[in-house]
Every structure is written in structure tokens, then in C-alpha cells.
Amino acid sequence: MKVKRIVANIATTDMVAGQRFYREVLGLDLLMDHGWIVTYGTEGQMMQVQISTASEGGSGTPVPDLSIEVDDVDEAYARCVQAGHGIEYGPADEPWGVRRFYVRDPFGKLVNVLAHRH
Question: Order of strands, edge to edge, in the sheet holding 66-69?
Fold first, then answer.
């Protein structure tokens, strides 16, 4: 048996707030909308299946609820700030090779937005 996909589920009654943050600010595609559940992701790309356990978030930060890797962390940061989402950490260049920031989504989840430095 192989795990094919891992989906993070966030409980909410405000689907519009999810669309504003995950689709409009972070640029994810709408993959499914049944009214009671809406899924965002990336069309046509294979994503790695990963799940992490952590005692801290690194650099003394709390463990984030979600980590989202983007191609341009500074653009993602600017879009979050422009949309009025509270930045809780960073942006920071971390010693393990990522540039990242923490932002709260509309549901209070702590999201680690990161890009690997090359």
C-alpha cells in the first residue's frame, strides 16, 4: 500500500474567507467545491506526500498548523500584508536553507509559508 495524498482539513462555516486566503492571496486552484467542503491545490502537478511531527517550529517559533511551500516567498509575504493578514514571524532566512514567514489564516491557523533557497 502507498499513501497517494494527504489533505489538511480546517473546520469553518466561512467558506468565503477560505477562498480569499487560499485562492486569492496564496493563488491555489479550486479543485473541488461541494458547498460544505471546498478543496484548494495545484492542478496537474504531482505534490510530495508529507506529514511532519515537531516539538517546535524552528528558531524558537511555535509549531505551525500548516506549511505551504511557494516559488516566491517575498511575493507571498507582500500579498498577505496587502490583504491585511497578520504576520507573526519573519520573513526570515533560516539556517536550514529556507526563507519563510508565519501568517494566521482567517480561521486562526498558523501557516508557515516558505521557499527553499537555492
Answer: 66-69, 110-116, 98-104, 87-93
Which sign does the torsion angle of CA 27, 90, 106, 62 carry?
A: positive
Contact 64, 111 (CB under 8 A): yes
The helix (H) or strand (E) run that includes residue 76 is helix 73-82
Three-class secondary structure of residue 116 per DSSP: strand
- The structure's pTM equals 0.91
16, 28, 31, 104 from 68: Cα distances, Å: 20, 11, 17, 12
26-59 pLDDT tens trace = 999 999 999 999 999 988 777 677 889 999 999 9
Cell numbers 500500500 correspond to: 1
Cell numbers of 72, please?
Answer: 516566491
CB 90 within 8 A of CB 100: yes
